[in-house]
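Q: How would the structure tokens look for this protein?
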Amino acid sequence: MVVVERYPELKATQNFRDLQAQLEGTENRITVERMRYNEVAQDFNTSYHSFPTNMIAGFFSRFKEKSYFHAQPGADTAPKVNFNFGSTTSAAPAVPATTH
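A: Here is the predicted structure in token form.
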């Protein structure tokens, strides 16, 4: 009987761990792809400025130097996530209103 009562909590804990692992994997994939993009842009720009490519690229307007990916300020901090949906307990105690 005790196992049945605790099973939902165990399942929720495992689901939360799975979610954390998926979020971490997503962040890692984004970081890897950002680095790959910047490496390709750097390789292109190096070729763009090298002889004889620079002379040929100068004749064609569609060849332009590539810009690097720059994250927006604050993008390096993870967003705050609150999983207290409908919880009766709160993280901080409520402060009673004062009447004077």
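The chain is about 55% helix and 0% strand.

Residues 9-58 form one domain.

Upvote if useful.
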